[in-house]
Amino acid sequence: MPTRPQKVYYFGTCLIDLCYPQAGMAGIELIQREGIEVIFPQQQSCCGQPAYNAGFPEETRKVARQQLKAFPHDYPIVVPSGSCGGMLKHHYPRLFANEPEAAEAQRFASRVIELTEFLVTVLDIKLEDRGQPIKVTWHSSCSALREMGVIEYSKSLIRQLQNVELIELQRERECCGFGGTFSVKQPDISSAMVSDKVSDIAQTGAARVLSGDCGCLMNIGGALEYRNIAIPAQHLAEFIWERTHG
Amino acid sequence: MASSVVVDFPKNFANALSNPQLRRNLRAAMDTLGMRRRAIFSDKDAFEALRAQGDAIRQRSLRQLPQLLEQLEKKCTENGIQVHWAETTTEASQICLSIIQSHHATRVIKGKSMVSEEMHLNHVLEEHGIEALETDLGEYIIQLDHETPSHIIVPAIHKNRDQIARLFHDKIPNTPYTEVVEELNAIARKVLREKFCAGEVGVSGVNFAVAETGTLCLVENEGNGRMCTTAPPVHIAVMGLEKVVERLTDVPPLLRLLTGSATGQLITTYFNMITSPRKSGEKDGPKEVHLVLLDNGRSKILADPELRQTLKCIRCGACLNHCPVYTRLGGHAYGYVYPGPIGSILTPQIEGLENAGAMASASTLCGACEEVCPVKIPITHILRRLRNESYSKTDSPNAVKGHGYKSNLAESLTWKGWALTNSAPWANVLNAKLLGLLGSQLTKLSKVELVKNWTQVRTMPKFASKSLHALAKEKGISDE
């Protein structure tokens, strides 16, 4: 088990900032409850992934430099997203490989840790479920699964919740079709993918679908709502906080 | 499809997606192939070790490609195989044509070869009155239906049994309708046997060419490859020049990776190693063997250390089988010879971004392809590189053909605006953040189109009344 830090930085992600601030706060509160001080630098903005994936590395660097500046001290940087976490941890070193900030980006990247990995491997968090029995299902985001490798940590947290039954999707490992700008640049393919994902979710009989990434949640949640399927899509941190605080 | 043909990607994609039969066929087939692959590579550590080896072999081969090709030519020539070099697909087809014509041949039998598809060889031969018959069962099926392969390994994978039954009944004279697989196989076998006997020239691809021995390796399951390379008096092997490996000992790990990744087989039913034409005293084998080495943009790709990784590909098709986009579109929608993830990085480099650049946008960058690639091609990195070069003109000699073709689009400008708002700390206002989400105004799409595209199957995202920045401040979370 890595050493327990006294303080951590929290990188909230732009999507959480804009659409899911409650999920972001839940992550902060889960960490605080374990006796760790959380610092939320107000100067933070976006990890830069939208521009990076669209093919605009120069614009990405401009935004990324702002993040390098906003998290100056040697604290872990906790990220409630596999996707933004993957960008900060795996793509920043590459993005700055031939830039003056190369070493700084390396150090920054080495401090980045996804929220559920942090809760499990660093804090060894123990959850006490206070909620009513519920069936949930889980969607693995591609970056959490393949870049960050944190899915087992996320699911282990769900399994700690005594009254929660986890029903797995038939195609848990398949992309939901969000892909950032892909969803609007290739609307037909994206629609086909999310429609299949929603059908998979519906067949589980779960009352809620959880994920660790708000991009997927926005996509899946929007598609569920469009089809009038009453299964809310929720960030895992918010779900855990709801069931364990008070 | 030739580069002069404009591919209407949006239309192709929409057509493929609205074909439920195609969607079902593909899903079933890809699931089966994926399951077989998982079964054969069930030991994850062993697979990782094997693919590290495969990656190293392919990297070593590409590092010394010019020398290896010279060595291959020398060895083949010593062994009696005639080597021909073609810079373009037209040259390669002409070489094949003149060999065939020099033998006054009009009946060519073909083993499966994606490079021959790249050359549009059948079409060229047909124009000169030469019948080129595909003998791989899948290739034979699609040739009957005047189609191109929809997958690089299983070319007729878009068709199901019923469709093939109907096709055989309609296209092969005196064929009663049957859906029994064994009977369908027997029908094709009967037709093909006669053709094998009558074939005057055999054409095949090459999976690996070994430089140290001058050996051409051919992987297949039906024996048709062996027929094409042994029955006719002349054998022409066509090969992309990246397929060379240094040593004979490089072949077993690559073969294992290829068959395991492609069809979940430990080894294929047939593995042919061709090192010379028939020697005196031998009773069978072609009297002439030719090797046509095709460049078609590959040496340019080789020059760039990142793009070069594209050429590591051993054409197993695993990236197609595991791609959520390919699984929904099938190969034809891509409009070019090589579909799926590998096609989406290879084709724009060969055909130019201005023609095929859109293929690079048909990916969520989910990484399922990289996870299974047996030689660790960084497909998502190369996709981002191609997206980048679509917008940026550069002086680099390694720039991808057609770079900067989208350089004056509004998208470039709006990303600059996005960068400005997200790098200025005072700009943490909702409207600025909105830009970063879906690329509202960031793509060339108007806001109306953007909303229309998103709401095809989804409700609009709801923006919170307070940002996390504001909430954190309100709750007294330290800003240090």
Strand content of chain A: 5-15%
Helical run tally of chain B: 23
**Integer count of domains of chain A:** 2
Major beta sheet of chain B, specifics? 6 strands, parallel
Order of helices and strands of chain A: EHHEHHEHHEHEHHEHHEHEH
Q: Given this structure, which CATH class of the domain at 65-299 in chain B is correct?
A: Alpha Beta
Multimerization status? heterodimer
* Percent in helix of chain B: 40-55%
Structural class label of chain A: alpha/beta
Low-confidence spans of chain A? none
In helices, the fraction of residues of chain A equals: 40-55%
- Overall SS class of chain B: alpha/beta
Point out poorly predicted stretches of chain B. 438-442
Gap between N and C termini of chain B: 59 Å
Outline of the structure:
Chain A is an alpha/beta fold.
Describe the protein.
The complex is a heterodimer of chains A (246) and B (480). Chain A has 246 residues and is an alpha/beta fold. Chain A has 2 domains: 7-122, no CATH class; 134-244, 3-Layer(aba) Sandwich (Rossmann fold), CATH 3.40.50. Chain A is 53% helix and 12% strand. Chain A has helices at 14-18, 21-33, 49-54, 57-70, 82-95, 102-111, 115-122, 142-147, 151-160, 182-185, 187-204, 214-226, 236-244; strands at residues 7-10, 37-39, 77-79, 112-114, 134-139, 164-166, 208-211, 233-235. Chain A has a 4-stranded parallel beta sheet with strand order 2-1-3-4, sandwiched between helices. A 4-stranded parallel beta sheet of chain A has the order 6-5-7-8, sandwiched between helices. In chain A, helix 5 runs antiparallel to helix 6 (102-111) and helix 11 packs across helix 12. The longest helix of chain A is centred in the last third of the chain and has 18 residues, at 187-204. Chain A is globular, with a radius of gyration of 18 Å. By secondary structure, chain B is of the alpha/beta class. Among the domains of chain B are: 65-299, Rossmann fold; 421-474, no CATH class. In chain B, the strands form 2 sheets. Chain B has a 6-stranded parallel beta sheet with strand order 1-10-7-4-2-3, with helices on both faces. Chain B is globular and about 90 Å long. Chain B starts with 8 loop residues before the first helix and ends in a 6-residue tail after the last helix. At the A-B interface, helix 1, helix 2, strand 2, helix 3 and helix 4 of A face helix 1, helix 18, helix 19, helix 20 and helix 21 of B. Chain A: Pfam families: CCG.
